[in-house]
Design goal:
The structure is a single chain. With about 375 residues, this protein is an alpha/beta fold. The chain has one domain: TIM Barrel (Alpha-Beta Barrel), CATH 3.20.20.70. The chain is about 35% helix and about 20% strand. The protein contains 13 helices and twelve strands. The strands form two sheets. Strands 1-2-3-4-7-8-9-10-11-12 form a ten-stranded mixed beta sheet, covered by helices on one side. It has a two-stranded antiparallel ribbon with strand order 5-6. A hairpin with a 4-residue loop joins β1 and β2. The protein is globular. The protein binds S-adenosyl-L-homocysteine (SAH). This is Probable dual-specificity RNA methyltransferase RlmN.
């Protein structure tokens, strides 16, 4: 059994004294400012700074969020004479598609993006009969070091800007529209990175994802899922924003002993603290919380752990919990594997027996390394 605990000390000591050391990525330059980074107020200022009348701001927003156009040369309601100036000041090209691969007969597509500084990251578009979901990245790499996740092995490169996050959403919406596949309906922050460790930029992206056009893409808040390792104070803060997006908590173990190694940030905010924050989220928003549980053979799939999971969730969240069991997706170099189907069925049965709703998540994209935990953005 290849059970390699991550650098646990990495969390224990610095966390107590200097949180920012752990959460701040290496100081890398962020990309140039983009229209999608701006809220309504800064948009008005930026437009005024260009010497343009205020109504141009709304026009630009209509083009970007409503018509999904990011190249001012294609904004036909903008006078040709100002297009270049607007492009230079507000619409730098942020992402280049380096590679696109698909599987599941084209229903799952993974995009590898390269930012202006060469940073790479991925997003995955999944088409289902009843919805279209894009799984987006909030950081290039990830600093959370969960040992079963490919992204976690490479460490954190840098935070993505709000516009870099929104450009992934826009690209997915364009792709669906241009191929006659309908509208983008769901966004999940389950790509690379820990969204709540890039809080302000992610929040800006969420706000403009759910805002009605022309101020945003107009995607329903309940169809936006923010997934976190369990940064308890940030979960509470997100609840207080009243955006009412769906929260997913990556629990993966009901006991601190195991969770300390599977999700190292548990050394800072343990199972009880993460569940208390999830309960707060559910109470404030009235939304059910998704509890993510990657089922790993002989690591966290024991019947007693299923019982304990059911018991703790029933106590902490009652009907406000829904467990998503994710069969572990293999990652390079790890000997860990998914649980056998019989063990998986028994696990689900036991969680349900405690009165907690529980289903197994359909995994997509395994063969193109696009499934949960497989994104590594190797160019
Ligand atoms: N950092 C956030 C979001 C990114 S990961 C978080 O941890 O929630 C999205 C989900 O995929 C998380 O629940 C994560 O634990 C899970 N995951 C990571 N690696 C996986 C793997 N190898 N197999 C299955 N799920 C995995």
């Amino acid at each position: 059994m290849n059970f390699r605990p991550p650098q646990v000390g990495y969390w224990r000591k610095p966390m107590a004294t200097s949180l920012p050391l752990v959460f701040d990525p290496p100081r890398r330059a962020m990309p140039p400012r983009h229209f999608a980074d701006l809220d309504e107020d800064s948009r008005s200022t930026a437009v005024a700074d260009l010497g343009l009348p205020a109504f141009r701001g709304k026009q630009l927003a209509n083009q970007y969020y409503g018509r999904l156009i990011a190249d001012p040369q294609q904004m036909t309601d903008l006078p040709a004479a100002v297009r270049e100036q607007v492009a230079d000041a507000l619409f730098p090209r942020l992402l280049d598609a380096v590679r696109e691969i698909e599987c599941d007969a084209g229903e799952t597509r993974k995009m590898l993006w390269r930012a202006v500084d060469g940073t790479t990251f991925e997003s995955v578009l999944m088409r289902y009969p009843d919805r279209n979901t894009v799984c987006i990245s909030s950081q290039a790499g990830c600093g959370m070091a969960c040992p079963f996740c490919a992204t976690g092995q490479g460490g954190l490169n840098r935070n993505l800007s709000t516009a870099e996050i929104l450009e992934q959403v826009r690209a997915a919406a364009v792709e669906l529209r241009d191929r006659d596949h309908g509208r983008l309906s769901n966004i999940v922050f389950m790509g690379m990175g820990e969204p709540l460790a890039n809080y302000n930029r992610v929040l800006g992206a969420v706000r403009r994802t759910v805002a009605a056009p022309p101020n945003g893409f107009g995607i329903s808040a309940r169809s936006v899922t923010v997934s976190t390792v369990g940064l308890a104070p940030a979960i509470r803060k997100l609840a207080d924003e009243r955006l009412n997006v769906t929260l997913a908590l990556s629990l993966h173990a009901p006991d601190d002993e195991l969770r300390d190694t599977l999700v190292p940030v548990n050394n800072r905010w343990n199972v009880s603290e993460a569940l208390d924050a999830a309960r707060y989220y559910a109470d404030v928003t009235g939304r059910r919380v998704s509890i993510e549980y990657a089922l790993i053979r002989d690591i966290n799939d024991q019947p007693w752990r299923a019982d304990l999971l059911g018991k703790r969730l029933h106590g902490a969240l009652g009907p406000l919990a829904h467990v998503n069991v994710i069969p572990l997706n293999p990652t390079p170099g790890s000997e860990w594997d998914a649980s056998p189907k019989a063990a998986e069925r028994e696990f689900v049965r036991r969680v349900r027996a405690r009165g907690v709703s529980c289903t197994v998540r359909d995994t997509r994209g395994r063969e193109i390394a696009a499934a949960c935990g497989q994104l590594a953005a190797e160019g």
